[in-house]
Write a structure and sequence with these properties.
Distance between the termini: 60 Å
Number of domains: 3
Structural class: alpha/beta
Radius of gyration: 24 Å
Order of helices and strands: EHHEEHEHHHHEEEHEHEHEHEHEHHHHHH
CATH superfamily of the largest domain: tm_1862 like domain
Largest sheet: 4 strands, parallel
Number of strands: 12
CATH class of the largest domain: Alpha Beta
């Protein structure tokens, strides 16, 4: 049973990413723990404030997905106050505690312990991450609070603008728009049908995995009251029984999406035909992480586009990995081949989505990745203007909407990059100028 915030002696659940940076997705571990406590009649709540006293909780579970997320101050204060005993009450886990660990043996050991620690917790007899139905409602108090804040702010703006209080219809419209921000929390059942991968990419948390194994069943995590399904499988299409599971998804009838992306390198006619007739939700997402895969990516894209010429298709583009402070050559090469990958995807009419490794911040020119992502990851920019045009539009916008005469950060970053690599500018400038509309080439896939 969920309790009111601050209830005494219940279980506290902490989404560290939510409290520090905010996050688009609910935390699946916490959803599943909440489902266990619900089913066993144990009081619990999601802690949504940064000012809480952990003393009032019987036990606290904290999950962190991202390594850059800071632990809440109430957690670090509790650890300082109870340096020898805090582990008796507070249990922490998640990829955010080891994802950036460079020592391979240490990484493998930390991941192994993290993956089994809840199953070994004496407070959770019989708990199964794979087969426990989540409690999808634990974020509702947080969402309601955030929507109320937004409605109050926007209502005040309208009142100042119009001189009168907003109508009920205007308030409802504001709340509906805000609700869409939290659709991943409100509209989706979330889970894994499989776990593991065969690729062993050095930058991935699955780098120690060598196989793909079955995990949950659909009825373990699909809430019939929710209209959509998110799958977070690591590499679904490489699983030996992918066809059986994909048919189960199709038979379920709910629109679904593989949010982690699918492995485009194994596409064939059978896989593509099944995916294209499935009730798929949103963009099909694949990955083009390494330039060395370009010929394979193009061959598979021909198959994909032949069967699904009108399906919106997006590729994650990994970049910024293993950058160091003074290696200008590595940065230029990485940015250059990032744009070469974008060029191939544009030619096949595909969207691109830049995924930056945290290492990009090591280099003094690392902000170039931020600016490329701001352009590339927003289809309204990616489809209508070149990266160079996007840069100068940012400057024009600043001049038109502020009194500042300074060069905007986007243009300053662009100019620093150009100055640093003046001797290589002729090589990369055409890529900065390329536009989707003139690069797309249907003859790539039409026979």
């Amino acid at each position: 049973m969920m309790k009111k915030r601050g209830a005494s002696k219940c279980i506290g659940l902490v989404d560290a990413d939510l409290l520090d940076n905010g996050t688009r997705h609910p935390n699946l571990v916490l959803l599943t723990l909440a489902g266990y406590f619900r089913d066993h009649g144990i009081p619990y709540e999601l802690i949504i404030d940064n000012e809480v006293n952990l003393e009032c909780y019987q036990r606290v579970y904290l999950s962190r997905v991202f390594a850059f997320t800071k632990l809440p101050k109430f957690v670090t204060d509790f650890q300082t106050k109870h340096p020898k005993t805090w582990r008796n009450k507070l249990q922490m886990g998640g990829t955010g505690f080891y994802a950036t660990e460079e020592d391979r043996e240490k990484f493998d050991e930390m991941r192994r312990k993290d993956m089994v620690q809840l199953a070994m917790d004496p407070f959770l007899p019989g708990f199964s991450m794979a087969h426990q139905m989540p409690d999808y409602n634990i974020y509702i108090p947080y969402i309601e609070r955030e929507i109320e804040k937004k409605v109050n702010i926007e209502s005040a703006k309208l009142k100042r603008k119009n001189g009168i209080a907003p109508t009920a219809q205007e308030i409802d419209a504001i709340a509906l728009k805000c609700r869409k921000k939290y659709k991943d929390y409100l509209d989706y059942s979330i889970g894994f049908l499989t776990r593991g991968c065969i690729r062993q990419c050095s930058f991935c948390v699955n780098k120690g995995e060598r196989s793909i194994l079955p995990y949950s069943n659909l009825n373990d995590f699909v809430d019939d009251s929710r209209p959509f399904i998110y799958l977070w499988d690591d590499n679904f299409l490489c699983y030996k029984n992918w066809k059986v599971l994909l048919q189960q998804l199709i038979d379920k009838g709910k629109p679904f999406q593989f949010r982690q992306g699918l492995d485009e390198r194994v596409l064939d006619d059978e896989r593509v035909e099944m995916l294209c007739r499935a009730p798929y939700h949103g963009d099909f997402i694949f990955a083009f992480d390494q330039w060395k895969d370009r010929e394979l990516i193009k061959r598979k894209l021909k198959i994909w586009k032949r069967h699904c010429p009108t399906k919106t298709t997006k590729f994650y583009l990994f970049c910024g990995y293993e950058l160091v402070a003074d290696d200008d050559e590595k940065l230029f090469t990485d940015v250059y081949y990032l744009f070469c990958r974008i060029q191939i995807l544009m030619s096949f009419g595909c969207l691109s989505y830049v995924m930056r490794h945290a290492d990009y911040t090591n280099h003094r020119l690392g902000n170039i990745y931020t600016q490329v992502a701001r352009w590339c990851n927003q289809p309204q920019f990616y489809k209508k203007m070149s990266f160079e045009e996007f840069v100068f539009r940012n400057q024009s916008y600043q001049e038109e909407h502020s009194a500042s005469t300074k060069i905007c950060k986007t243009l300053a970053t662009y100019q620093d990059f150009k100055k640093t690599f003046a001797d290589k500018w002729k090589l990369i400038e055409p890529l900065f100028k390329m536009k989707y509309e003139s690069t797309i080439n249907p003859s790539n896939w039409k026979e």
